[in-house]
Design goal:
By secondary structure, the chain is mostly helical. The protein has one domain. It has helices at 2-15, 18-28, 44-63, 68-93, 97-119. The radius of gyration is 16 Å and the shape is globular.
């Protein structure tokens, strides 16, 4: 998972709008409304720092088995908050595919880390 987070960090560094563009185009033929591009890049710092922090936590969990449960808990907190906000945006703001996919991707990771957390007991 850490490598995945590094890849997402690099993707956001190269072109933070690319994921929005791809999802908007992929789902436009199915009637899903698009998510508009931000006119300012205020959130760019967070878009890069969140997957970078998750990459560090995942690498640290792999390298330090004694502390792995703590790192996994922190990852889960980050993922649950993000999944909840994607769900909120989908339900209350715009029924866009990007929010539904964000919720799904974050939720799958939560399940993965919860299963891992149980194994680490």
């Amino acid at each position: 998972m850490a490598v995945f987070y590094v890849a997402v960090t690099v993707l956001f560094l190269v072109d933070a709008d690319w994921p929005i563009l791809v999802v908007n185009k992929a789902f436009s033929g199915y009637g899903w409304p698009p998510v508009f591009f931000p006119t300012e890049k205020f959130w760019f710092s967070l878009a890069v720092s969140v997957p970078a922090t998750r990459a560090y936590l995942a690498f640290a969990a792999a390298k330090k088995p004694v502390e792995a449960r703590l790192f996994v808990r922190i990852l889960c907190i980050s993922l649950v908050i993000t999944a909840a906000l994607f769900a909120w945006q989908f339900v209350f703001r715009r029924h866009a595919a990007l929010y539904a996919l964000g919720f799904l991707i974050e939720s799958v990771q939560v399940v993965f880390y919860l299963l891992l957390h149980r194994k680490l007991r």
